[in-house]
């Protein structure tokens, strides 16, 4: 018994129960405080442990459920009913194939009339040649420029899915108006014989109807060009290597389908317009764009549609204003106590704090937004105290704007190539029209001459994707094989070769005219129009490399909320190229037509032009443009590579 008392505390000894009275119990606990504290701590620890285990189990179950939900859905994407897009159901090459099929019909409807529109304006609307040429140039330039509007709306307010449907409906309405006018003689200017006197051009309400239909088509084309490429590219998971490869394949075949639709337009539809009438030509285009709508809708159950994130221009404007005003406030500090109290700098996490590790230091954000080289001016927008809380910027917003600024030099470098491509629809067509256009017993109409670059693109696109790229991947041991900027650079270099070849061909054509004594003749020269095929080959190849490279480059490098707008820059480059071509011709004629010298690009016929000199000038300008491109391309740091590695 003594041993029990020695080893067990009195509170646990059954032979010595604690006193029953309150006072005696208090004195007992005071005398045995260590034992009471031991019991209370044990009870507290056991309760805390059981509570923490139960809470941990509940949190784990919630995390598992959230993880399962996130693994089954595409974050930031919805289906056509605005429900979360499912990984097992939405996206992939099947969804993109509907976009490719739609592109064939859409480009058929556009080029069926654009490639031969000048003929309709001259023969049916009785426009003067200069006015007809300007009308076509303005129409195509406006259509491509409006792609920026379509891309902006897709990013800011509506999905690219909805923008395409609205744009296709608008283009259908415009083509329907043109078809009705072409079918109804009372809606056209009176017929006349141009050999007996000048014909009266369309005017008044008839002209208003024509231009309304024409620019409704331009508006619809712009919306489609600005939304359709991004809609297809969004179907692939850029977080996986296979997804990125499939997306690259999509852009190659997007250009292929673009060319395929153009092939049908410049051959079959142009033949119909020349032989059966413009009612049939406009009608085929109207039916094509109408059929594209149900084809596009057929893929609704497979699309994953990116959720709009608001206006990208708002972010760009805010960062620029914040950088400007913060710089001024830093140079001229103001002592406004009220503003100092009301305005607080934006909160930054430790990962957003700038680290000054030397010249090549970068600003760190999370892995989702890899940073570019430090830009002292724009970085002030996030590093310094804003003059107003509305101008408070995060480092992620600054990085997005820095990316957009970095894309601009690449975009500007491609305008010269688009200017070279514009020659295919102007002087190159006139060259071929002055030559022998017969292939055996078949006479090729001048409006069908763009078939050469179209065919070359259709041949090169699959060859590039299935032969050139796999070989380049083996040689370079990289995922892409050829980078986007390398691909664009190849296209720019090919444009230099194309202009040089065009100059040499023009020299030969003119020598044939001199030897045949046909300088003043309007008849076909004794030289085959196939001589211009090489310049079409090189320009078609340049278009394939550059357009597909630009679309993929702008899509992958731009911020997530600006992708549709960024891909629209590829079409805007074409528009600015058409405008630059017109300006360049005017400048050349003014510069070379001084004094007794005749302008290079004027004369009774093409045989009196100095077209070879103009082509050499284009080649020199293309070389300068290529060097300008190299300057920026060699300094560009890819954002998508970092984003892919971080994901």
UniProtKB/TrEMBL annotation:
<feature type="transmembrane region" description="Helical">
    <location>
        <begin position="132"/>
        <end position="154"/>
    </location>
</feature>
<feature type="transmembrane region" description="Helical">
    <location>
        <begin position="161"/>
        <end position="180"/>
    </location>
</feature>
<keyword id="KW-1133">Transmembrane helix</keyword>
<dbReference type="GO" id="GO:0022857">
    <property type="term" value="F:transmembrane transporter activity"/>
</dbReference>
<feature type="transmembrane region" description="Helical">
    <location>
        <begin position="444"/>
        <end position="464"/>
    </location>
</feature>
<feature type="transmembrane region" description="Helical">
    <location>
        <begin position="525"/>
        <end position="553"/>
    </location>
</feature>
<dbReference type="Pfam" id="PF00854">
    <property type="entry name" value="PTR2"/>
</dbReference>
<feature type="transmembrane region" description="Helical">
    <location>
        <begin position="278"/>
        <end position="298"/>
    </location>
</feature>
<feature type="region of interest" description="Disordered">
    <location>
        <begin position="341"/>
        <end position="375"/>
    </location>
</feature>
<feature type="transmembrane region" description="Helical">
    <location>
        <begin position="249"/>
        <end position="272"/>
    </location>
</feature>
<feature type="transmembrane region" description="Helical">
    <location>
        <begin position="403"/>
        <end position="424"/>
    </location>
</feature>
<dbReference type="InterPro" id="IPR036259">
    <property type="entry name" value="MFS_trans_sf"/>
</dbReference>
<dbReference type="GO" id="GO:0016020">
    <property type="term" value="C:membrane"/>
</dbReference>
<keyword id="KW-0812">Transmembrane</keyword>
<feature type="transmembrane region" description="Helical">
    <location>
        <begin position="91"/>
        <end position="112"/>
    </location>
</feature>
<feature type="transmembrane region" description="Helical">
    <location>
        <begin position="485"/>
        <end position="505"/>
    </location>
</feature>
<keyword id="KW-0472">Membrane</keyword>
<feature type="region of interest" description="Disordered">
    <location>
        <begin position="1"/>
        <end position="24"/>
    </location>
</feature>
<protein>
    <submittedName>
        <fullName>Uncharacterized protein</fullName>
    </submittedName>
</protein>
<feature type="transmembrane region" description="Helical">
    <location>
        <begin position="207"/>
        <end position="228"/>
    </location>
</feature>
<comment type="similarity">
    <text>Belongs to the major facilitator superfamily. Proton-dependent oligopeptide transporter (POT/PTR) (TC 2.A.17) family.</text>
</comment>
<dbReference type="InterPro" id="IPR000109">
    <property type="entry name" value="POT_fam"/>
</dbReference>
<feature type="transmembrane region" description="Helical">
    <location>
        <begin position="565"/>
        <end position="588"/>
    </location>
</feature>
<feature type="transmembrane region" description="Helical">
    <location>
        <begin position="614"/>
        <end position="634"/>
    </location>
</feature>
């Amino acid at each position: 018994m003594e041993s029990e008392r020695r080893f067990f505390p009195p509170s646990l000894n059954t032979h010595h129960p604690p006193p029953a009275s309150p006072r005696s119990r208090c004195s007992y606990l005071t005398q045995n405080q260590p034992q009471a504290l031991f019991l209370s701590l044990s009870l507290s620890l056991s309760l805390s442990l059981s509570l923490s285990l139960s809470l941990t189990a509940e949190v784990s179950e919630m995390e598992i459920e959230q993880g399962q939900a996130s693994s089954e859905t595409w974050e930031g994407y919805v289906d056509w009913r605005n429900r979360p897009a499912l990984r097992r159901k939405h996206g992939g090459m099947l969804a993109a194939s509907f976009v490719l099929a739609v592109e064939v019909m859409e480009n058929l409807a556009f080029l069926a009339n654009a490639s031969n529109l000048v003929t309709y304006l001259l023969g049916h609307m009785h426009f003067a040649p200069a006015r007809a040429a300007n009308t076509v140039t303005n129409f195509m330039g406006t259509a491509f420029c409006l792609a920026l509007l379509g891309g902006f709306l897709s990013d800011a307010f509506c999905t690219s899915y909805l923008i395409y449907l609205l744009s296709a409906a608008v283009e259908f309405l415009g083509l329907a108006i043109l078809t009705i006018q072409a079918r109804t003689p009372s809606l056209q200017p009176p017929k006349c014989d141009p050999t007996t006197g000048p014909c009266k051009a369309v005017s008044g309400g008839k002209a208003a109807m024509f231009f309304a239909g024409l620019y409704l088509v331009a508006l619809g084309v712009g919306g489609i060009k600005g939304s359709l490429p991004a809609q297809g590219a969004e179907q692939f998971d850029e977080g996986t290597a296979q997804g990125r490869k499939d997306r690259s394949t999509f852009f190659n075949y997007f250009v292929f389908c673009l060319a395929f639709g153009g092939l049908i337009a410049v051959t079959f539809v142009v033949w119909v317009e020349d032989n059966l009438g413009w009612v049939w030509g406009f009608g085929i285009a109207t039916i094509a764009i109408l059929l594209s709508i149900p084809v596009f809708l057929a893929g609704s159950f497979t699309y994953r549609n990116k959720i709009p994130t608001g206006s990208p221009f708002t972010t760009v404007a805010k960062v620029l204003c914040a950088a400007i005003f913060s710089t001024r406030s830093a140079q001229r500090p103001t002592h406004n106590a009220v503003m100092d109290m009301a305005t607080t700098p934006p909160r930054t996490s430790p990962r957003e704090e700038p680290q000054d590790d030397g010249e090549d230091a970068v600003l760190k954000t999370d892995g989702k937004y890899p940073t570019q080289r430090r830009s002292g001016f724009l970085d002030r927008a996030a590093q310094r105290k804003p003059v107003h809380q509305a101008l408070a910027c995060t480092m992620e917003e600054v990085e997005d704007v820095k990316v957009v600024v970095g894309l601009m030099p690449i975009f500007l470098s491609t305008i010269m190539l688009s200017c070279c491509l514009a020659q295919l629809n102007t002087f190159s067509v006139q060259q071929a029209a002055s030559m022998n256009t017969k292939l055996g017993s078949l006479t090729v109409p001048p409006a069908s001459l763009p078939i050469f670059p179209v065919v070359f693109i259709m041949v090169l696109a699959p060859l590039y994707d299935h032969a050139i790229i796999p070989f380049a991947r083996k040689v370079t041991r990289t995922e892409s094989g050829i980078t986007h900027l390398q691909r664009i650079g190849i296209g720019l270099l090919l444009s230099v070769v194309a202009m040089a070849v065009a100059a040499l061909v023009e020299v030969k054509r003119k020598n044939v005219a001199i030897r045949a004594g046909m300088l003043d003749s309007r008849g076909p020269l004794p030289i085959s129009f196939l001589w211009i095929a090489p310049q079409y080959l090189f320009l078609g190849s340049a278009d394939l490399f550059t357009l597909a490279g630009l679309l993929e480059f702008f899509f992958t490098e731009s911020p997530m909320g600006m992708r549709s707008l960024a891909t629209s820059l590829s079409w805007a480059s074409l528009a600015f190229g058409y405008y630059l071509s017109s300006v360049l011709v005017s400048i050349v004629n003014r510069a070379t037509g001084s004094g007794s010298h005749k302008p290079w690009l004027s004369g009774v016929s093409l045989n009196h032009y100095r077209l070879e000199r103009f082509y050499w000038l284009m080649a020199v300008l293309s070389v300068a443009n290529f060097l300008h491109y190299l300057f920026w391309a060699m300094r560009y740091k890819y954002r998508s590579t970092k984003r892919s590695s971080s994901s």
